[in-house]
Every structure is written in structure tokens, then in C-alpha cells.
User: Fold this.
Amino acid sequence: MKNKTTQELKDPYNIIVTGVGGQGNVMASRVLSQMLSLKGYQITIGETFGASQRGGSVMSHIRVSVESSWSPQIPKGQADIIVALEPVEAIRVLAAYGNPAVTVLSNTRPIHPVGVIAGELNYPDLGEVKKSLAELAGQVHFVDATDEAVKLGNPILSNIVMVGAVSGLGILPVGIGEFKTAISNLIPKKHLDVNIRAFKIGIGKVSPYSLTNHGSGHHGSGPTAA
Amino acid sequence: MEITIKGQHALHEEVRQAKFCTGCGACVNLCPYHAAHGDQIVMLHACDIKEGRCYAYCPRTPTDMDSLRKQLFNTEDMMPEVGAMKGFYVVRAGDEKLRSGAQHGGTVTALMILAMQEGFIDSAIVADEGDGLLPKGITVNIPDEIGKKGKSRFVVSPNVAEFNALAWVGGRKIGIVATPCQALALGKMRAKPVPTHAERIDQLKLVIGLFCGWALSWEKLSALIRSKGVDLKDIEGMDIPPSKYQLLQVYTKKGTVDIPLDEVDPACVRGACHYCPDMTAEFADISVGSARLPEGWDVAKGWNQVITRTSLGEQLLALARSKGVLEFRKVPKGNLERLKKASMSKKKTAEKNLAIRNGQPKDNINMDSQNPGLDNV
Amino acid sequence: MSKITKNQKGLQFLLMGNEAIARGALEAGVNVAAGYPGTPSSEIVETLSKVAKEMHLYVEWSVNEKVSLEVAAAASFANLRALCPMKQNGVNVASDFLLHLAGSGTRGGLVLVSCDDPGALSSVNEGESRHFARLVEIPLLEPGNFQEAKDMTKWAFELSEEIKSIVMLRSVTRMSHASGSVVYGPLPDKTAKGYFKSDGFILDPDTGPVISAPVGYKHVVQQEKVKKAREIFESSPFNTYEGPSMPELLIITSSACTLYSREAVRLLGLENRVGLLKLGTTWPLPPKLLKKHLSATDKILIVEEVLPFLEENVKVIAAEEAKEIGAKTFYGKNDGTIPMNGELNPDIVIKAFGHILGVSYVPMTPEYEKKAQLTAFTMAPNREQTFCPGCPHRASFWSIHQALQIDNRQGFVCGDIGCYSMAALPCGFSTIRTLHSMGSGLGVASGFGKLEMFGMNQSILAVCGDSTFFHSVMPPLVNAVHHRANVTLVILDNSGTAMTGFQPHPGLGVDAMGGEAPPVDISRVCEAIGAKVEIRDPFDIEETRNTLSRLLKEDGVKVLILKQICALSPEKKGKKKYTMSISETLCIGEECGCNRLCTRIFRCPGLVWDKERKKTRIDDVICSGCGVCSLICTTGAIIRKEAV
Assistant:
């Protein structure tokens, strides 16, 4: 794992964690933020809860910087990494916060909106989603986080698998050490083990076989994590 | 005549909102989107199916009457004034006990019991009442029970809804007592206009139609009766004697209450009935009404006039005669003419009302200009 | 030990704004905290309730905001420090007491925390609470970042004791629910003792009775307090300036808008042209400070949410000082530069710069924007709000809707605030037809229930929740009974204040601090008031509908309590009562006779319409196993089996 100092990340570095209410979006953003603050960064997080929990789209905006007090809402077009716990939410977020250089990390398991399961709206084919994301982002990685989480015994662990995958990208200077410290402050001891396993699986998921923009073959800024 | 089958929205607009709905129940129990509450049909949720059975079966949506008659009856039997007629009789139930529990001659009850005993049917759908005279249809499987539901009601029970529910279950042979609008709905169903679940109508074996001048609105009738100080729970029966009496008679535990007919008609008449051209239930197998006899109402009220329209109808009546289930008497001279005149009068009134409503003299709903029976005076 | 109680000066934590406020109260030595759940304020009391024992606090979820302020005020009168947090609407509910409290004065530090919701992210209004400070004449503070959320709260107690008045601290969703770095201060040793002295001289603020009368005298005293606060605000460290000494454009801002404004300046590289005056003390405004900054520029942009509160108050000062400082050009809401409604963000401020300074900025190339938006439009289906799988409200409103349709008298439901407010949407079959504030459903219904004499013959229903019942439904129930309104109240009792995070209320046997508490029985209260009461399980939809159909026909006030625990309740979580499956042979799907009743109308997220197979299927991950869908399926295709 490359050891990045606080000077090497663009400042502020903007991460969006998005998904559907109930997927553990808040937990994912908290863990990631705690991990980054352990490396000395000042973090600002903007979140929406409340009504959006009932089946609505949710987003957490994370500002990573040497200073605090950035806007909890990322300005338009300024996302650096988008972590999507649900595939079409990545598309939705890109419409407001995307840019040609953004890195997108997306779960593969869809959560159908009520309009879709009621047979009224269409949910796109996953292949189409992948293609669209590749056209709109600098690099795109897909992680079958929910499938892995189900294997571990609880689908909600998909959020931790995704946090592991972000870490595995090697862009952010955080890894298993920071994760262990951060997660132990956030959940009961009895769940620590399975969460750590989920994180490690996530790291392993970020492989050379991900889509990139413009067919350039560029795979991101660093090797996958140890 | 080109008929387009539409869906629930059109049914709602063209029939319910237009106040054409007769409360027959044909659109209920086909699906979860309609319900019957007494004599009112309500929409539970919106359905967006383009061609619905509800629209196809409704007796108030556009109907090719000519074609329907040809499918269900022999053209030689057609009489423009009263529909298909194989025979015309004056009868009453042979069993005196049965007659005492019935409205008039007990013919409907007797025929239904016979049909069940002979295995033509295993289930009979008749009208019943809930709290406060609230009409509903019920299924009866035991011949004896049929006799208990022998009284007339002047409010439409949504019997076709009961038929739909029973037919959904399957494997039955069903007989039903039907008003003219209900008989028409069942007739439309017999023509299988929509393929979905069309085979269910094959379980319908016998339709005994009732002569009908009009039906009363349950809401208005119960309000009128209550205003006369009658507790609805005490009511045992109702009747409207021949027109010269101009009365609605309500039989209660505490005695008979006479209500002047002009307080009932037109105030309590169900609005949709003003547009109905069918007095004798032209689409039934057998149609039954009260009789007119030279001895007067006191005797006549114990007899029925019967029209048989199909071979099943004739067969059942013949069986009834041979088993003594029905007593026959000679049809008085002029009775058929009187019946035809009364029927034509209802048709003319309907046509007139429709013309006023639609603003045009011909081609009104159910009044296709090719419909026999209207151009004749 | 929780992170919020770590007693080590200089520790830094990533805290949510609400947690920072709670920490600030702890650092001030708060003794009592009382509130009513309301997004975005609920976490303040929740955080304190978790450490109540450890920190020797009394923490209460009161029945409503008015009572919570009264409870907090009592602590203040007894020389203890008290905190009272609520959402913007809570201030409306507490306002009458607040007005009198401002007149009577306080003793121990008393801080009212109001968390507004610009943009109505979790409300059905975006009402402003700042105006109350001006209206009832008390000081108003607004933190501009997370450190200030803590520091200001702590200082608010000191200010309150200095001027002997309640102090209002106003936050917004993007401050309360956002998180940032907070450096801790020390926790004090608390030695406060509660005693209410009231036998002193009648006008003595510390020893006399606590009354807002004689008004002539007390109002003057009150206004002196405000003046004193204004003096203090002239040199407050919470009012800061950054930028050139003679800026081309001066931004005056407060609260979360500070963060948006600052980011906008930086993104456009305008640090040398634009000055940022951030105000933390926003009522009363310190006139000398403002005069100083107003005179250094000609153009002023005021950035705030939601209404032009700051803008109009600044303009008053500018008008008063105009002779000395000259005429100024103001940009803000009144001239349309900043929207008069909704929440703000950095892009809105950037747009304002474009308008005022002619600076252009392209956040996204037009091609990218077009492509990204088109992709989202065609590929990201809208997520409508809906009840959770297994929510008793879905079943309740199913029955209510059926009963009203069959009743055939154009009946309707008057609703109020809670998860069930969503019954105004298709997920609740659009049954709710009036929706306003807490407890208003029954009040409005009580009014409708007397209109028969004007020819109104419609069936009238009201709904409320179990928590809402205690909040403000009892008075309208008395009103309806006493005035013989013909209404039916359906109480949706899911055993908690679900919408805001499942806080307890007096109907349950537990209090905010997790201790045992005697529950108040809703059905007995209704009976005592004189209503006819029946209780049913909403998951038994036939019984519920039949009962409701019968009640709709009766005169007078009827209460139907539909009792079934919330699907998200900690007690229930994870336990499925039934395993659900679909019989594909029985499912007729799109055919006439069904037309996808379960997925199209009932719309539980656990039921999925499989477009290829043309059948419904169950999503086992989402399904909560309540079994209600099997009761609505007309062909028996949805099968439920009791789970082992």
C-alpha cells in the first residue's frame, strides 16, 4: 500500500457514498471518514436521513482536507470518487456531481424502486449501466458486494465490502489498520470479526478487470492493497 | 353493429357516473377492483386493462341486441314486444305450504327447487337481505332453503356478483333468479365476448327471470319507510298490487303499512330504471311475473304468468306439470295482449327518456335502430 | 464510556452537529435536557439520554415541545442548567410559553435549540424559527461550523445566566446532520443543587416569583436584556471576517450558508475581491460591527436560509446609518439573486457571483452535463417514497381505503405528521386528503364533523399515531366528543415514535433514559373522554375493514385503535412471522381478474413483478414476513407459511 502523506491528495478531496435508504450508507461513510481522520485529515460529512430512509435515494458527501469547515454539500461536478452501494444511484449522482475524471466504484446488486417492481418503470440492464458509467467516468470498478455479504451471512455487510474496495483502489492512504481502529469504535465487539472479513474481501475485489474510459487501459493510481 | 369493448375507466364514466348503473352486479367478483354494497356498485381501485370483462358484461354498455338474440334464441320464437316465447302460461306452485311462503304463486321457488331436485342445477342464487333491507345475493344448495327466500324485493340484489364469485370457484351447475338487467348481463356473458375465463359461464344452467317495471333505490326506500315510523327490522315483506290500488304495501310484524305509490314512484325509483326497455326479462330461460285474472287481485295474487323462451324452459315446465310441482290454469283471453301492451309501454318510455337524455331520437344505448320491437307501435 | 463524555481537553473527534451541541451542553455542565423527537433535532436528546446515568443528567422525551420547554424552564428556575432541543415546528408549538418565559426571565442557564429544515428534507414545511427570537425578544445564536456548534452551545449557557434570559441557538439540517471536526474542552465538576426560591421581593429576578407580569415593568427589563446582549455581541468571537479590507463585494452570512459561501469564493478564486462577514450572533444584530463592514464596500450580498431575516435586519441598520455610510446596493432574496425558498448550496452562491461580479464558472461542460442528465433520466428510475415492507400502515390504509369506497359517501381522511403522512401518496392509496401539523387531523375532522347542517354528507375520518396522540390529539378529541361531531379517529399504534427513530412516548413502559415508566393507556383515555373505542390488529384486514365499515355508519365519535408494532422496531427486527411464496399456477398476473393487484396497487417492496415470467415473485431479502399480501391476493397465489 502506497503511503500517502496529507499533501498528496487534492484538497479538498470529494467522496460521495450513495445508495438506497437502509443499505448502511451512513455507516459506510462514517467508517471511511474515521479511517481518513486517523491519517490526520480533517473531514466534513454531509448526509440526508429522515424521510429518505423509506426507500429513497441517499447520499453522503465526504470532504477530505487539511482544514475543516468545507460545505457539507459538494459543489456541482466536483466528485472525485463515487462509491455506489446500488448501481443506478451511481448514475443519478453523476448527473449532478460527475466529471470525466471521477472514479466510480459500484455494487452490482440492484435494488428495484417501487415503481419498477410495480411494473411501471424500467430498471436498466446491468450491462447498460456498466456501459453508461464507463462513458461518464474516468475509471469504473464493479464489486459484487451483496453477493459476498450474503456469503458472509448478512446482506448489509455489502457496505463494508465496498469500503474495503475503496481502500483497495489505493487512491486513499488508508488500509486494514485504519479500518480495524475505526470500526471498533462504531460497532459491538461481537461483530468485529465478520466486518473485518468483509473489508478484506472488498480489497481483494478491486482487480485489473474493471472498465475504464476511452479504452485507455489506465487502471487507477496505485496497485491493489496488500 | 360494431361494439368496442373498453375498460374500467370507460365503464365508470359511461355507466356509473352517467347514472345508468342498475346494480345488477355483473362487474363485481370478476376481480378485486369492484365491490357491491347493497344496490350500489363501487370502484375499489383503478384498473388500466384495455378490454375488461366488466365492460363487456355490463348490460348498460353498447350491446348488439340483434346478434345476441340470434345466439341465444330461435328466431321463429321472437316476439318483438316480449322477446322469445315458446309458451305462455298461468301457473302456481302445487305445494300449498310453498305458496304461503312466496310472494305470489310461488312459481319461481317451485321451479328452482325442481331444477335442483332433478339435477339440472346444484346451486341456486336468489336474493336475500342483510341489515336494514340491504340487498345481497346468496347461494343456496339445499332445496328446502330455496323456499325460505321466496319474498319479492323491490331493490336490486346484485345476484350476478354472487354468480361471478361462485363460477370462479368452478365445477358447479348454477341456477339464478334474475331481474331483466341481470338476465341481459348473463346473456352477454353467454356470448363470451372476452376470452379470459370465458368458460366460467358454462356453469350457468338456468336463468329464471322476473318481470320488472322498475326497481327502487335502497337508500331512498329505506328512508321513506323509516319516515313512516317503521323499524326496518320488523319488515316481513312488501308488495305493489295492480296499478289501480296505487299503493306500496309493507308487511310488518305489527301489521300492514300502506304507502301511497306516488310517494314511491318516481321519488324512490332507481334512476337507471327509467332507461330500461325490458319488462319481461327477455334474456332468461323462463320469465315469471304476477298474474292478472278475471276474478280480481285477491285471487290473481296467488298465481303467476310465465313465458318460456328456451327448450330448457319448456322442458322444465313440462316436468313441473307432470310431477304436479306446478298447477296450471287456462290463460284468460287477452292476457298476452295486455302483457304485450304493458311491455311496449315500458319500451316507449325508455326510448323517450333516452332520446331526451341523449338529445337524439334514434340509435340510443341499447336502442339500436335495427332493434325490433321499437318501430312497431 | 461513550466518546461524547471523554474528559480530556484537546481531544478531536468527528462529530455530527447535533452531537457537538450535546457535547457543548455537557461542557457547560447541563443538568436537564427535555425535548420532543423532530428531525433534524432528535440526536441531541438521544446522545444525552445515552450518557444520562454516567453524567448524572435528567433527560426526558416530553409529550410535546411546549411541555419540554416548561420542563426545562423548571430546571432553570431551580438554578440548574437546562437544554431544550426541537425542530422548527416545535418552536411554534412551544411559542406561547416561550413568549411568557422571555417576559418572566430565567435563572440557571436555559438554551433553546431549534433545528430548522430548509428545503423540507424531512418536514412538510420549511418554516423559519429565527423570527421567534426577534418576536419574543431573546438573543439568537447560529453556529457556522461544527466547532462552533459545540462552543456556542457552551457559551449560550453563560450568556443566558448573564442576562437572565433564555437564549435561542438555531441550527439547520446541513449543520445538525452533517459532521466535522470538533476539538473538545474540559468537562466541569458539577455541584449544582436544585432549589426554587420564590418568596423574595416580587420583582427580584433571583428570589421573587417567576412571572411575566407586571408587563409594563417586565417588558422594559426584558428589552434591557436584549440591549445588553447586543453590546456583548459587538465583540463576540463568533462574528468573524475574512477577506480584503475594502472588498468589492461583502457577503454577510450565517449558519451552514457560511460554508457554502466560503467554498464558492474559493472555487472562483475571489479571495481578493470578496469579503465574508460571518455572523454567529444574528439577533439582535450588533450595529457598530455592521456599520464598520458596511462602510467598507458598496455591494453587499446576503446569503441565508430560508427567508430574508438577516437581510431585512441588516437593511434596517443600513438605512439608519445611511447618512454616514452612504447608500448601498444589496443583493439577496428580495431582489431575486438568492432564491426565497428551498435550501442553498455552493452552486447557488456561485451563480450569484456570476450575476453580481460577472464572473463566469462552468461546473460541468455542457456536453458532459447533457449526457449525464440524459443518462440519469433514461436509466435511473425514480425512487418513490413508500412504507417499509411489513409496515402496519400499509395494511391499515388498505382497509381504510376499502371501507371508505364501499361506504360510498365520498369519505376522506384528515391526517397529521408521522410515517403515515405518506398515505397522501399512492403507497397509502392516496387516502389522506388534508395534512398539516401534529394533531391537526382530528381537529380538522372535528370541524368537518359539524357541517352536516350545510348539506355535507361525507364520511369523515382522522388518523394519528400513538406518539402524536399524546402530543396534541387529546384536546381535539375532547372537542369532537363534547360538540358531538360525527367522526371516526383511527389511531395507528405501532408502539413508538417511528418516523424520527423510534423514540419512546408515554404510551410505552420505558422512558428516554431506558428506565421503567408507567404507561398511559390510550384506549382508556379515549373512553374516559367519552369516545366509543375498539381495538383491532391491522394485519387482520378483513376484521379491520368490517369494523371500520360498521363504525362509519354510526353517529358520534368513534376511535379505532389499530395496534401492530412497527416493522423497524428493535423488538421486531429480523424476525419473520411467515415465509412467503408464490404459486405460479395460481398467479394470473396481468389478466383481467387481477391486473397485478399486489405489485401495482398494494405496492409492498417485497413483491416484485417479473416482466419475463409475467408472474409476481417474493424478494426474500426485502420481505419482512408479515403475511398481509397473501390476504389481498384474490386467487390465493400468494402463500404464507408460519416460520419456524
